[in-house]
Amino acid sequence: MNLNEFTAQYYKGLSATVYKDPVPLDKADTALVLIDVQDQLTGDYHKAHLKEMGFDVTGMEPIFEEIDEFIGSALGNIEKILAKCREKGIRPIHCKIQSYLNDAADTGRLHKSAGMLQPPSSRESKFLPQGVPKDDEIVLTKTCSSVHVGTQIDRVLRNLGITNIIVVGFYTDQCVSSSVRDFADLGYRVALIDDAVAAMSRERHDMAMNGISNIYARSETAAELLTRLEKL
Questions:
Q1: What is the pLDDT of residues 203-230, one digit of tens each?
Q2: pTM, full prediction
Q3: Is 45 left (phi over 0), alpha (psi -120 to 50) or beta?
Q4: Cβ-proximal residues to 163 (8 Å cutoff; 6+ apart), any chain
Q5: Distance (Å, whole) CA 107 – CA 162
Q6: Of 136, 173, 179, 191, which cross-links 147 as Cys (Cβ 3.0–4.6 Å)?
Q7: 129 DSSP assignment
């Protein structure tokens, strides 16, 4: 046995003690948290953004198509989960990247350094059709990765009596991972829906899931979650 094999077995055993069973689902204490379901994810956006930055995108169309294919699969599952949660009375909470000011001067250092300036009027800040909030649903904005660092979500959840969280959204290796770790450290039980979250690439998604699944969150598929929701 080498170190990689030992470590895999160690964490497999540890996960059985942290999450013996799926995260309970009850509209009284469960919320659906949707992270950054925004236009900035699409292949078309990346193409336009690269052009604006002066990059030659000739020959890159297959890459943009692959982005849309991978992201689109997760978006389809997000749309189904959101609809079912609404039907069953589980409250959605929408989190997105957006500054408060029109000049985005309030953007955090990391996002500002990366050129992620997303004022309220920007294309990037708009929700994708699969995750558009309804008028009576909570929307929180941030200019950083974790929803806990960037918003008052912990206070909102505690005021609502929420102890169990369903997490969907983007990107697995960035905002999703940061948020899930913080949820766990703050005492919430987290259901992370493996095929309703995604990174820019499958490789980055898989690496991120390997680091957080069944330790910081209980991982399950959209089909498994939807079957459990249907029974409520």
A1: 999 999 999 998 999 999 999 999 999 9
A2: 0.94
A3: alpha
A4: 29, 30, 187, 188, 189
A5: 29
A6: 179
A7: G
